[in-house]
Inverse folding.
């Protein structure tokens, strides 16, 4: 995390013999930072005794029932966040500031007891949005409110309402899972009985029995993720923010996490979740926001977004190596003859022809094949017809699939950026 973003309520906990863990106790969030990075002194300068007192004060009672009468659980209004980056100008050695707009004019609301899924490729602004929502980063403009309580004006109250699972967990390798839960339960001012009862429930729910009394240094990625989620849920926050909670996990572990999130939602919890996995967003989310380059391209429920696309989808590869000209020509003819409602060439998928067709016409596939034979494409390489998927929604909004967008975003990052990113993990 850049020094400029280190907020006042961060508290470095030198636990065990691993790296310093910056701990945001009120939201159950930890970020471990490489100790050689110069954050320690920055932190010392920025933190006053009054702020440290704020960290450990007992959370005040908030009457959500009362607040819920007038406010949605989450309201994000015109959120904008930019970053400055020093870059070399082309052809000169002089560096200048480049402004990166990570999130631009983003607005959405989430009712109580619903899951909102933020979907987007790498660098689309998901993490930045979530960090602003978790009070770890201040918006340039716009506002975020939980039950009408503003994240900037009443940050310390807001933090008592949040559970946050960051992209990478900051756990101490020497402490056991149970010791982590005890520590965070204490920092959240849970009384002893409530703490023990919540720990036992979460250990069982998240299938942690075999690991909870072992040091976290021996945990696999899946167990770390489950413990991380348990820490975020320990103080039973009404709002849960999860930044790619199941990235890199096997399907079994993902299902355990999905089950816990669904029952948390069914009990009235509100969840904001970011993910690269279309399936995950589709299964879990009541409402989906599609982001690209910090801008919202579409929002709605999965059913609404798919229905907005109208017809069935057909993907055709004319030949193994189709030229863009041939694919364009086929699209034009199919549209002219009224066989496709929409037709685009997907250049990132070997110039595949992507069509939207009438879902009520049972012979549409055969008619399209016949038309393509007539214009010279006698042996099609592949042909697939399906109902619209979330990836089709993404494709319609951006002209490329989410997977292709991810590959492009990764290719666009310099080697240096990737090295720095890996260092920070
Ligand atoms: N601290 C920062 N300093 C400079 N630029 C940043 C910073 N944080 C994010 N960015 C830039 O803001 C943009 C959005 O990044 P962000 O991490 O929010 O995207 P993301 O959708 O979460 O991506 P990923 O899926 O890879 O985590 C990117 O261009 C990124 O390089």
């Amino acid at each position: 995390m850049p020094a400029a973003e280190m907020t006042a309520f961060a508290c470095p906990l030198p636990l065990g013999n691993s790296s310093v863990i910056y701990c945001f106790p009120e939201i159950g969030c930890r970020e471990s930072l490489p100790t050689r990075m110069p954050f320690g002194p920055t932190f010392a300068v920025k933190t006053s005794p009054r702020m440290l007192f704020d960290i450990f004060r007992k959370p005040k009672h908030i009457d959500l029932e009362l607040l819920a009468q007038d406010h949605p659980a989450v309201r994000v209004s015109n959120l904008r966040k930019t970053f400055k980056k020093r870059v070399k100008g082309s052809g000169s050695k002089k560096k200048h500031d480049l402004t990166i707009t990570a999130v631009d004019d983003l607005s959405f609301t989430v009712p109580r007891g619903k899951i909102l899924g933020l979907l987007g490729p790498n660098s689309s602004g998901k993490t930045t949005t979530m960090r602003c929502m978790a009070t770890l980063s201040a918006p340039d403009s716009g506002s975020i409110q939980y039950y009408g309580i503003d994240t900037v004006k009443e940050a310390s109250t807001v933090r008592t309402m949040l559970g946050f699972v960051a992209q990478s967990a900051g756990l101490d390798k020497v402490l056991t899972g149970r010791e982590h839960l005890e520590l965070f339960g204490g920092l959240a001012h849970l009384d002893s009985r409530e703490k023990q009862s919540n720990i036992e429930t979460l250990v069982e729910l998240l299938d942690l029995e075999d690991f909870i009394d072992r040091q976290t240094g021996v945990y696999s990625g899946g167990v770390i993720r489950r413990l991380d989620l348990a820490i975020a849920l320990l103080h039973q926050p009404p709002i849960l923010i999860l930044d790619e909670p199941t990235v890199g996990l096997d399907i079994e572990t993902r299902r355990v996490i999905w089950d816990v999130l669904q029952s948390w939602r069914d009990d009235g919890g509100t969840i904001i979740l970011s993910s690269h996995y279309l399936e995950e967003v589709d299964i879990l989310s009541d409402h989906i926001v599609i982001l690209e380059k910090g801008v919202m391209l579409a929002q709605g429920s999965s059913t609404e977004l798919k229905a907005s696309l109208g017809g069935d989808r057909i993907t055709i590869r004319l030949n193994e190596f189709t030229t863009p000209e041939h694919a364009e020509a086929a699209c034009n003819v199919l549209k002219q003859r009224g066989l496709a409602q929409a037709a685009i060439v997907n250049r990132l998928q070997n110039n595949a022809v992507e069509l939207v067709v009438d879902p009520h016409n049972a012979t549409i596939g055969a008619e399209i094949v016949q038309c393509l034979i007539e214009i010279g494409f006698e042996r099609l390489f592949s042909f697939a017809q399906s109902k619209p998927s979330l990836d089709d929604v993404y494709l319609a909004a951006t002209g490329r699939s989410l997977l292709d967008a991810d590959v492009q975003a990764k290719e666009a990052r310099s080697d240096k950026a990737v090295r720095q990113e890996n260092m920070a993990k």
